[in-house]
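I am still getting used to backbone structure tokens and would like to learn alongside you. Please make up or recall a protein chain and show it to me in full. Would you write everything just below, so we can both look at the same thing?
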Amino acid sequence: MVQYRRNLVAGGTYFFTVTLIDRDSDILTRHIDALRTSVEKVKQKHPFEIVAWVVLPDHLHAVWTMPTGDCDYANRWRAIKSHFVRSLKRQGVSIRMRPDGSALLWQRRFWEHTIKNEDDLCRCVDYCYINPVKHGLVKAVTDWPYSSFHRDVKRGVYPSDWAGGGDNHVDSFGEPSITVASM
């Protein structure tokens, strides 16, 4: 079996991709309130800063900064996933189970990238925010409701029309062709 090695930097900032097993599912957006509650419950016990977050129907991207001296993001993701599954079950949502008792909802692993510098951070946050456009869910970033982009617009970090649907803002790979000056 392949041994996965995580880059653990206490107090570090990380970009994550977390995905459902069923890539045709819309359970994350259909049950967005349960997901939000799951994240908040975990944050109360095990704090972290949400730098950016976007939830799509079948996966999500997030940028977190861990508390000083703490690098245990894996257990936070495990707790968020578990809380979300339990919440759905309480709501009567049918979830298939593995023989070991774990839910057949989330992919077991997730992808993480350690943020190296300010430019890397900006690219990762931009990637989060452009993702619904890249997947054809909306024409403009501001039209996707399940994103911390709206929080960052209120804070003055991004203009509300950033990557606003014109081809002049997105290159041929679906990535933004502009960058935010400062986070």
